[in-house]
Specification:
By secondary structure, this protein is of the alpha/beta class. The protein is built from 16 helices and 27 strands. The protein has 3 domains: 151 residues, Rossmann fold, CATH 3.40.50; 180 residues, Rossmann fold (3-Layer(aba) Sandwich), CATH 3.40.50; 100 residues, ANL, C-terminal domain (GMP Synthetase, Chain A, domain 3), CATH 3.30.300. Strand 3, helix 3 and strand 4 form a beta-alpha-beta unit. Helix 2 packs across helix 6. It is globular.
């Protein structure tokens, strides 16, 4: 290989240094690092036998499973591009993505074979269909039979370079069709190193994969944890009680979650009956964290809460809210405020927060601007979309569309997405600020604030609230009065709608665009 910037070196290293150590726990199955390495090799060789070549796209449709971890190495070491698909999308979405990427091969969990069968006649290029779990495979290749028949020798395509595309992830488009984010070997390598260094990952770490691995390479966990020789614990979907059981049984030391997952976890009534003492860190990203959530994690779990920020186009990690040494002894309220922030840039990532004139804002924790980023983790570009790429990467800086402040210590605080800022009577309102206030109400389980059309003010805030189980004696006016005592008048929600649940993406992020369509606009 012409470049050393490759996550492919991570699995061979772990297999050599930790051959007999448990690498993966997936349901009742357990695999050592030797097993993991051999199975990834067999997958790569099986794909070569089918005719997969350097640059071909190989899609994967299924939940968190050892087979997807195997694909993270077995597919890309052939020189092909791994393309994990979000399991919560529609059949029409899969058809668009598979055709847009010209995916040659797809590995499919048995649960999704009917979905793929419903669109096969519309797939223009896809020719190899592989069932990664037994049963109902029809005319699909059988994954385990393919592996059993393939050589176990390690093969890595000698023509690959660090700038070759290794993974392709389709973002959920907000204004049109989804865009394919191209991540190179160099991007993945840099992100893994950032993960290892900023979170001090060791061979003793046990990570529970609560974040779907189809979401921007599982935030880098397939690479970082593998390099360190840690243990991967697989869970097909987030279920709070199952998470608690696995943390206690497998002595999990680290989890990555979005705030809605953490909120569900700390509000699980049985949480006190599980031994969670092994859990040292919860890394929380995907959306901004309310300060109250940091406090609840410390009180109910007793581990360190690390806020994080990133996006698919940056592989994804940009910042982590790891506390500087002289800040660790701050009073809990001030410390929680810092931990809830997006945090400090990780190694090798440069951040600026700029105003509309392109000038960097003051680091005073008040002035707001757009976050722009550059570094080795920034994507190669959007697949077959030069115009879209040019619209977000300007002079080598990735324009994120996220609005933020920067404090004197250099901690980034995401204020809102540009598209989620509520403009009321010429005043900018951060929906996150209003949400953080509502999260301090004892009756609130989940909340989302969006802009609602108003004839006089243009937009006014509207709150969608999920109450905690058993709470009934709370009215919308109660919530409005609660906000009035804590916010400037123009920021107070004009309407409150109580709902049984909030729409969420495949990663558990609240989908405000759906709420806006349902009644926010």
């Amino acid at each position: 290989m012409r470049s050393s910037a490759s996550p492919l070196r991570f699995l061979p290293r772990a297999a050599e240094l930790y051959p007999a150590k448990t690498a993966i726990v997936c349901g009742e199955k357990r695999f050592t690092y030797r097993d993991y390495f051999v199975r990834a090799n067999r997958l790569g060789n099986a794909l070569l036998h089918l005719g997969v070549r350097r640059g071909d796209r190989v899609a994967y449709l299924g939940g968190n499973c050892h087979t997807l971890l195997e694909a993270y190495y077995g597919v890309v070491q052939t020189g092909a591009v791994l393309m994990p698909l979000n399991i919560r999308l529609r059949a029409e979405d899969f058809a668009f993505m598979l055709n847009h990427a010209a995916a040659r091969t797809i590995l499919v969990d048995a649960d999704f074979i009917p979905v793929i069968n419903s669109i096969r006649k519309h797939l223009e290029v896809t020719r190899d269909y592989i069932a990664v779990s037994p049963g109902q495979s029809g005319d699909y290749w059988d994954y385990e039979q393919m592996l059993a028949a393939a050589p176990a020798e390690y093969y890595i395509n000698p023509l690959m370079s660090g700038d070759d595309v290794a993974e392709l992830f389709y973002t959920s488009g907000t204004t049109g069709k989804a865009k394919g984010v191209m991540l190179s070997h160099r991007n993945l390598y840099a992100n893994a190193v950032n993960f290892l260094l900023s979170l001090d990952i060791q061979s003793t770490d046990v990570l529970l994969h609560t974040i779907p691995l189809f979401h921007v390479n599982g935030w880098g966990t397939p690479h970082a944890i593998t390099y360190a020789g840690g243990t991967h614990i697989m869970i097909p979907r987030f279920e709070a009680r199952r998470v608690l059981e696995l943390v206690a049984r497998e002595k999990v030391t680290i989890c990555c979650m979005v705030p809605t997952m953490v909120n569900t976890l700390v509000n699980t009534p049985e949480i006190g009956s599980y031994d969670l003492t092994s859990l040292k860190r919860i890394v929380v990203g995907g959306a901004s964290s309310p300060e109250t959530l940091v406090r609840k994690v410390e009180e109910k779990i007793g581990c360190t809460y690390i806020g994080s920020y990133g996006l698919t186009e940056a592989s994804p990690v940009i910042t982590n809210s790891v506390l500087k040494e002289h800040l660790q002894s701050l009073p809990s309220e001030r410390r929680h405020r810092l931990q809830a922030k997006a945090g400090l840039p990780v190694v090798g990532v440069e951040i600026r927060v700029i105003n509309e004139c392109g000038q960097e804002i003051r680091h005073d924790g008040r002035e707001t601007g757009e976050v722009v980023v550059r570094g080795d983790t920034v994507m190669s570009g959007y697949w077959h979309d030069a115009e879209g790429t040019a619209g977000v990467i300007i002079d080598n800086w990735l324009h994120t569309g996220d609005m933020a402040t920067m404090d004197e210590e250099g901690y980034l605080q995401i204020v809102d997405r540009k598209k989620d800022i509520i403009i009321s009577g010429g005043e900018n309102i951060s929906s996150l600020e209003v949400e953080n206030i509502l999260y301090t109400h004892a009756a609130v389980l989940e909340v989302a604030v969006v802009g609602e059309h108003d004839e006089q003010w243009g937009e006014v805030p509207k709150a969608f609230i999920v109450l905690k189980p058993g709470v009934t004696q709370v009215s919308g006016q109660d919530m409005i009065d609660f906000c009035k005592a804590r916010l400037a008048g123009f920021k107070v929600p004009r309407r409150v709608e109580f709902v049984s649940g909030l729409p969420k993406s495949g990663t558990g992020k609240i989908m405000k665009s759906v709420l806006k369509k349902a009644g926010g606009d």
